[in-house]
Design brief:
With 710 residues, this protein is an alpha+beta fold. It has 20 helices and 19 strands. It folds into five domains: 111 residues, no CATH class; 197 residues, no CATH class; 56 residues, no CATH class; 117 residues, no CATH class; 125 residues, Beta Barrel (Elongation Factor Tu (Ef-tu), domain 3), CATH 2.40.30.
Length: 710
């Protein structure tokens, strides 16, 4: 069965070609080569058409091979009749014509006009995300190395490695505190450099694993080099000629050799780390034992991109061209479900395996959509803004919009095949989608926040003083005007007493000045001035001492009394001694993003759900900030402390600066149950109703305006 899949990496094989024939029947290109390969999943034989000029191969089945054998007949009808007469196959002329179209599509015929060379700008747009740079041709070196490393493939080494991994993990578990300390230290600059070094060593060994395994199975390694994935360097090995191997388990061994090499390295590094003394070597072994192989499994083991995981799954299933063939099955199923097209299956498969391919294709599409959007964001941030915006649009257009538009064009071209019933269903679906996107169904807004008592009076000393008496205990109910704390300031008392004495003395002196013989009037005026000055000083000292009697400004409950305060203890003016809280009134500081802030209005109703409480609170929006907060209202909201809001990684943790723009919304209300302390809440508002489409447009416009500062 023809797979219709082109895979890079083919090499020379047994020759085969066709003789030239007069037009309109085209001739096969003379340099093409055909050689047998492993059987298909159904047991039928398979062959490869190798194109050594472009280093591509094409897998074909029995029917296609028989057509090629009779290609010089130059007549589709005669070829089909000959195959039906000489074999058990029953093709018709249309099968031959379809295969001819396949050969033309992939430029395997001599008379096909060569496509004009791709303009440099178009090639750059399609390939700037992933560029391969060949560096070495290691075939001879690998052949010389292979006898020296043959022991790595022995059964006894595999068993020994498994034992080393088990013992290493056991020893590491017994030193878990040390492991945790090393992981914490990896955050430093030294840790980053160590991680980078471990990645380089691990990846080089990864590629050597592929190369040596290929050489061991007789597959020539064309070249090794560096690939730039979004300008990030990655080592690669050209093992494309592994498709010459007839046995899929040999191809699987080559595909998995890189990951296996890193796992072997991690196993022995773990064991050696447990015995090494502290130092740079032990740190290097730690990175090789932990982070390097985990990153490899996270990236390379994914079957949704053309990394090791994809080729491992392809070889395990013995199903070349997995992505393309699964995509064909998924497109056929999608057209049948949505439009009622009853297209024939691209190939004969069991129902269970066909369902697997369809599910795999949909999973691949979703994975790639998320990945390409992520890459587009990375590309945007990797360059200056003008180029970043342009490349973001190109990335989304080439890798997301273009495939979708290509499928929509197929649907449009075949709209005449859509049955009336399907047209009605499709129209209803479009109306439903439009209704979901355009109708403002819901105006609800949910926002994180913190709740605290609406009226709070912190109890501070007005200046440095000594505690004379704490007149209200923690948890006691207090009334407005009730004395809470009595303080004393010996220095103030002494100054007040001094001022009183001096004022009295000068008052007496003023009275006796009239009896003086020399300048009695002047002496009296001077004494009266001094008496007035000292009396003013006394009154000021009295006022300061009066401030040392702290009273409740409103009724409430005494909270958070400092347990270290005792009679005779000195307190500073910045020291919080207690709080008077009126818990019946409460205040919530909620944070909403900008697009939700525009939909809120002061005076609107709010429902508050306190974390850990089942009863809801109701209040009103009192204020909405016009500028984003620079600091979170409380650390309970910070993601680092279990909250929902991420902090800005460039700011210090203590600053509590959010990573995105959040606007404060103040909500107040009353409740019979007092609010106890500061707690995390979820505030629900009913804002102006807005459709999903308008929300998305506003969000996109906001981002464009925000990022347009070229």
């Amino acid at each position: 069965m023809l797979s219709g899949t082109a895979v890079a990496g083919r090499g020379p094989a047994a020759g085969g070609g066709g003789a030239a024939s007069p037009p309109p029947w085209p001739a096969l290109r003379e340099e093409l080569q055909i050689h047998p390969t492993g059987a298909n999943r159904d047991g039928s034989p398979a062959w490869h058409i190798s194109d050594p000029v472009r280093n591509l191969f094409f897998r074909i089945g029995w029917l296609e091979f028989e057509i090629l054998l009779r290609w010089p007949m130059a007549d589709a009808e005669r070829i089909a009749q000959e195959i039906a007469r000489d074999t058990t196959l029953a093709p018709d002329a249309d099968d031959v014509v379809r295969f001819q179209a396949f050969l033309e599509q992939h430029q395997l015929l001599r008379t096909v006009r060569r496509k004009p060379p791709t303009p440099a700008w178009r090639w750059l747009l399609n390939n700037y995300l992933f560029v391969r740079i060949p560096l070495v041709r290691p075939a001879r070196l690998l052949e010389k190395m292979l006898p020296w490393v043959e022991w790595l493939y022995s059964r006894w080494f595999v068993v020994l490695t498994v034992l080393a991994a088990g013992v290493g993990v056991l020893l590491a578990a017994r030193q878990w505190d040390t492991v945790a300390a090393h992981l914490h230290g990896a955050i430093s600059w030294e840790g980053v450099l160590g991680f980078a070094g471990a990645i380089v060593v691990s990846k080089l060994l990864h590629e050597m694993g592929h190369a040596l395994m290929s050489t061991r199975h007789g597959v020539r390694v064309g070249h090794m080099g560096v690939a730039l994935l979004v300008m990030w360097p990655m080592a690669y090995t050209d093992t494309g000629e592994s498709w010459k191997l007839a046995r899929s388990r040999h191809r699987l061994a080559i595909a998995s050799a890189g990951i296996c090499a890193e796992l072997v390295l991690a196993a022995w590094s773990t064991l050696l780390w447990a015995f090494m003394p502290d130092g740079d070597l032990r740190n290097a072994l730690f990175f090789l034992a932990t982070t390097a192989w985990v990153l490899t499994l996270a990236v390379n083991a994914s079957p949704f991109m053309r990394f090791d995981g994809y080729y491992m799954l392809t070889d395990a299933l013995d199903f070349p061209g997995l992505h393309e063939r699964a995509g064909q099955q998924a497109k056929r199923a999608l057209r049948r479900w949505l439009l009622g097209f009853n297209d024939p299956s691209p190939e004969t498969l069991t129902p269970g395996f066909r369902r697997f391919l369809i599910a795999f294709a949909f999973a691949t599409w979703v994975y790639r959509l998320v990945l390409f959007i992520g890459i587009a964001v990375v590309v945007y941030h990797a360059f200056f803004k003008a180029l970043g915006v342009f490349l973001f649009i190109v990335e989304m257009g080439v890798f997301v919009v273009r495939p979708v538009m290509a499928e929509l064009r197929v649907w449009h071209a075949r709209q005449g095949e859509i049955k009336p019933r399907r047209r009605v269903v499709a129209a209803l679906l479009l109306v439903l989608v439009a209704a979901v996107l355009l109708v403002p169904w819901h105006g609800g807004i949910s926002a994180p926040g913190v709740i605290r008592a609406g009226i709070e009076q912190p109890v501070f000393s007005p200046y440095a003083a000594r505690l004379a008496a704490m007149e209200a205990s923690d948890g006691a109910a207090v009334a407005a005007g009730q004395s809470l704390v009595t303080l004393e300031a010996p220095g103030q008392s002494e100054e007040r007493e001094k001022a009183r004495v001096m004022s009295s003395a000068y008052t007496r002196a003023a009275r006796g000045a009239m009896g003086l013989e020399e300048r009695p009037a002047a002496q009296q005026v001077l004494a009266e001035q001094q008496a007035s000055r000292w009396d003013t000083e006394r009154r000021a000292r009295d006022a300061e001492l009066l401030r040392l009697r702290l009273v409740a400004a409103h009724g409430g409950t005494m909270r958070d009394v400092d347990p270290l305060l005792q009679s005779g203890t000195w307190v500073a003016p910045s020291q919080l001694m207690a709080m008077v809280v009126d818990g019946r009134r409460w205040r919530v500081e909620a944070l909403v993003p900008e697009h939700d802030r525009q939909r809120l209005a002061a005076g609107s109703r709010a429902v508050i759900i306190v974390k850990g409480r089942t009863r809801k609170l109701e209040g009103q929006v009192r204020a909405i900030d016009n500028s984003p907060v620079r600091r979170l209202p409380h650390l309970l909201l910070a993601q680092d402390h279990g909250g929902p809001i991420a902090l800005n990684p460039t700011a210090q943790k203590k600053d509590l600066r959010p990573a995105e723009a959040w606007f404060r919304v103040t909500v107040e209300g009353e409740d019979d149950t007092p609010v106890d302390g500061v707690r995390e809440v979820r505030a629900h508002f009913e804002g102006t109703r807005e459709s999903l489409a308008r929300r998305w447009i506003n969000a996109a416009t906001s981002v464009l305006i925000e990022q347009s500062g070229f």
